[in-house]
Every structure is written in structure tokens, then in C-alpha cells.
Design a protein that fits this description.
Layout lengths: L1 H17 L13 E2 L3 E8 L7 E6 L6 E8 L6 E5 L2 E2 L2 E7 L4 E8 L10 E11 L2 E12 L2 E8 L2 E3 L5 E9 L4 E4 L4 E4 L4 E4 L2 E5 L6 E5 L15 E4 L6 E4 L1 E4 L3 E5 L10 E5 L2 E5 L2 E6 L2 E5 L2 E5 L2 E6 L2 E6 L2 E4 L11 E4 L1 E4 L2 E4 L2 E7 L2 E4 L5 E4 L8 E4 L2 E2 L17 E2 L5 E3 L4 E4 L11 H5 L31
């Protein structure tokens, strides 16, 4: 029986191998393509692009022979892999009816010696049966300032050419990195900016400083975890970030390191967006942080991870942990006077932590956890805040909620699209403490907080007529 089956299989294989390919001789239909144009977003000079895929299909009822597939230009910087063969040209390709072949395209752009992106064109040409078809290729080439594995002395960074960090970097001890308005700092996967010296970021509302991934395609805009983050080491002081967008990292801003005898770092950050981060927005090991008019959202674990003591002040901040990639179990804000690292306990005094005219919300029932090594109450105060917490839990027994609002819905315009402005009936409207609002006077966009009946809690002051865009 087994011999018969084997014999039948051999005969079937022989039959199909000997079957003649029936090629189309007349009325040939054009090839179909999965894309009309193969489009690359910005390709940085000296660095390769992501690979694009083009699927080519034979819609004819019989076989066709493609005489040649080739790149029209020779020096455009595009490279092909045609049906598994690397090279910019391939000939005599037989394609069965209804079958497809794949072409993979990448780009490597030479320096353009220009500040602005330059369009780079080419096409893939197909010839068969006396027919010629082509598919366009378009990329934008951008010259960059490449920063790769260096320790920086004092520098000033300015646009319009982006700075691309490859293999990480460090601002050296005693040195200052000054970043001017409108500058873009883009990080390759796994790269980190370490700050042992001082970082000063001077963005403006019109020209914020951008810290993001070097994957500039629109599809990657909200994807977290594409680079590591900015790490301030112990001994780093006088750090200032104003009007910045920090996104797509693992931990956007991390302050402090273990096993160091230097003092923990400090940071003042204002009018900034921190979002789309795999682990945390701001994490701190005993550091000092003052944040004003900041939005911290869309983090996989913690928006704020403030452990091993320190000193923290948040004024008119919106901290909202909405996460859509997986289940989330960690509270949006964790505050403690200790940190357990592999059963080694690091502890320090929590000098003070204040949340003033701020919002703490998210998808969990309780978005704040307070932990003390001694079990004693920590020095934490809320004023003019919206809080999504379970106030019946024992940790809240010594906390006063007078002048605050405990609730479940802060009334954002569109949380799912990270639009955290207060909507028409939001409880944030008029909730803020007036005396504290006067000390700031404006919101994250520069709108006055003092021009209506009362200031709103959070980073945004509602403007008449604002609605979902």
C-alpha cells in the first residue's frame, strides 16, 4: 500500500513538472501593483531607510514572461531586491496566472548640502510583450547632524537640520547642552540621552523642541518604546526644559541612579507634552522636580513614578494614564520614600510633594498610590485638583480633600485622541485655586487663566467654542 502511494506521488510530480506553461499570446492584460507610488517619508542622509514592499501580480489567464524589471535611474540612491534576488535589474521572469512576485525597496540618500528636505525620484520599469509599465518611487532626503556614541562638551543645538542620536550620547560632567526653539532631536531605536552635566531646552509655544523617534512616518507617530529616553544622572543640576514635546520612548524623563554618592539631579519643566511611553513619563529616584503646565499621558505603567524620596511640585499639570496597547494594573502616579531593587532597599526622605490645580485621572478606579517604608504618612498635599482615586482606602485617611474634586470623569474633549482640553461640562472648569493660578497666569498654550470667571484645573484653560477637532 505504501509503495502504491509513493508511486502515485512520483507520477503526479512528474506529470506537473512536464506540464507545459501556457503563455498568453494575445490580449495581454497589464500587470497590477499593490502601490501606484512607493513612498518613503524622510530618509536621513548617511542612514538607511525602512524597507518598502511592492507586490506585482499577473491578472492574465495564462503565464507571462516579464522581459526585464529594472530601476530607471542608476544613482538615485534606491536599491531593489527583485523576487529574492538583490540587484536593481532582473530579466526573464516567468509569472503564473494570478501569481505575484515581490520587490523590496530601500533608500540611501547622499548629503544634499541643504537645510530643508529634498524630493528624490525614481521609478521601477517593467517590460513584457512589448508593453512598458512603471511604478514611481519618491523619498524625501534630509541632511542631519549625526550624534553617535559621543560625550559632548558645551554645545548649542539649533534647527532646521534635525539631530539624529545613534548609539546614544552623553552631556559630560560640568558641560551644558543648550537647545534652541524649533530644534528636533530624533533617536534611533535603543538610543539614550544621558545628562551628567546640564540640559537647557528653550522652546517656545510656536516652535517647541521635539524629542522623538527617528521613524518619522505617520504610522509611527503614537507608537511607544522606539528609543530609551532622557536620563539625568546624579550630580546633574540646573536642568530646564521649556516648551518641549517628548514622545515615543521607554521612559521619557528619568532622574537619578542607584549606587551613587553624588546628590540626585533636579529638573524644572514647563509647558511640555510627555506622551506615548512604554513604561513612564517621569520617573525619579529621590530627585527634585518642578513641573508647570505639563501634560503627561499614554504610558504603559506610570505617568509619574516618584520613589526613594525627593521633592516634587506639580502646578497646573494634566496627568492622565489612558493606555490602549495592553491591560494596565499600575496606578498612574506612584509616590514612595523607598525603592526595592532586587531586595536592596533604597530609602530617602520625601521632603514634600504638592499637586496644585492639577488633574490625575486614567482608566483605573484608583490612579494614585502612596507607599511609606515606615508606614507613617508622607508629606503630600493636593489643592484645586481633580483626582480619580478610591478615597475609602486607608492611605487616604490622613489626606484632606478640601478644595479638590474626587470623581471618575474629568470631561476631556477626546481622551482617545489625547485631546485633554476640558469639554463644555467638564468639572475642571473653575476648579483651580485662584491664588495659585495667579502665580502662573497662563496655560500650556499661552492663554490667560484670569480672563474668565475662574481658572481651570489642568494644563489647559478652556476657550469659548473649543470642540473636538
Amino acid at each position: 500500500m505504501k509503495r502504491n502511494v509513493i508511486l502515485l506521488l512520483i507520477l503526479a510530480a512528474f506529470f506537473f513538472a512536464c506540464t507545459e506553461k501556457k503563455f498568453v499570446s494575445s490580449g495581454v492584460k497589464l500587470l497590477t501593483f499593490s502601490l501606484d507610488t512607493v513612498y518613503f517619508d524622510t530618509v536621513f542622509t548617511g542612514l538607511g531607510s525602512a524597507t518598502r514592499e511592492l507586490r506585482v501580480t499577473n491578472p492574465n489567464p495564462g503565464w507571462i514572461r516579464i522581459d526585464n524589471i529594472s530601476l530607471a535611474g542608476q544613482d538615485s540612491g534606491f536599491r531593489l531586491n527583485i523576487d529574492g534576488s538583490p540587484g536593481n535589474s532582473k530579466s526573464d521572469i516567468d509569472l503564473a496566472p494570478g501569481d505575484s512576485l515581490f520587490i523590496f525597496i530601500d533608500a540611501l540618500v547622499d548629503p544634499t548640502n541643504l537645510d530643508n528636505p529634498v524630493a528624490i525620484y525614481d521609478s521601477i520599469v517593467f517590460t513584457f510583450h512589448g508593453i512598458k509599465q512603471d511604478v514611481n518611487i519618491l523619498a524625501w532626503g534630509q541632511d542631519i547632524n549625526l550624534i553617535s556614541g559621543v560625550e559632548l562638551s558645551g554645545q548649542t543645538w539649533s534647527g532646521p537640520k534635525p539631530y539624529v542620536v545613534y548609539n546614544s550620547m552623553m552631556v559630560d560632567t560640568g558641560e551644558v547642552l543648550l537647545i534652541n526653539p524649533g530644534t528636533r532631536i530624533l533617536f534611533h531605536r535603543g538610543s539614550t540621552m544621558y545628562v551628567a552635566g546640564r540640559l537647557v531646552v528653550n522652546g517656545t509655544p510656536e516652535e517647541p523642541v521635539i524629542f522623538a523617534s527617528d521613524r518619522t512616518e505617520f504610522v509611527y507617530n503614537d507608537i511607544p518604546g522606539q528609543w530609551s529616553g532622557i536620563y539625568f544622572l546624579n550630580g546633574s543640576t540646573g536642568n530646564i526644559i521649556s516648551n518641549a514635546v517628548i514622545k515615543n520612548s521607554v521612559s521619557a524623563l528619568h532622574l537619578g541612579n542607584l549606587f551613587s554618592e553624588d546628590l540626585p539631579p533636579d529638573l524644572e519643566i514647563s509647558n511640555s507634552l510627555i506622551l506615548h511611553n512604554t513604561v513612564s513619563g517621569i520617573s525619579s529616584l529621590g530627585a527634585s522636580v518642578t513641573a508647570k503646565n505639563c501634560v503627561i499621558t499614554h504610558c504603559g505603567y506610570y505617568s509619574l513614578f516618584l520613589v526613594s524620596g525627593g521633592s516634587y511640585h506639580f502646578l497646573h499639570c494634566t496627568v492622565n494614564n489612558f493606555w490602549d496597547y495592553s491591560s494596565r494594573f499600575s496606578p498612574g502616579v506612584l509616590v514612595s520614600d523607598f525603592y526595592n531593587y532586587n531586595d536592596i532597599i533604597f530609602t530617602n526622605s520625601l521632603d514634600e510633594i504638592t499637586f496644585t490645580n492639577s488633574v490625575i485621572s486614567g482608566s483605573l478606579g484608583n490612579e494614585v498610590e502612596i507607599a511609606s517604608l515606615s508606614g507613617e504618612s508622607l508629606n503630600i498635599n493636593f489643592l484645586g485638583c481633580f483626582l480619580k482615586i478610591d478615597s475609602t482606602m486607608p492611605m487616604w485617611s490622613s489626606i484632606s480633600f478640601e478644595g479638590n474634586h474626587v470623581g471618575s470623569d474629568p470631561g476631556f474633549i477626546n481622551e482617545s485622541y489625547f485631546d485633554l482640553r476640558p469639554d463644555t461640562l467638564s468639572p475642571l472648569i473653575g476648579l483651580a485655586n485662584m491664588d495659585s493660578a495667579i502665580s502662573l497666569g497662563y496655560d500650556i498654550r499661552g492663554y490667560s487663566r484670569l480672563s474668565d470667571s475662574g481658572p481651570d484645573s489642568g494644563a489647559y484653560e478652556r476657550q469659548t467654542g473649543e470642540k473636538r477637532e
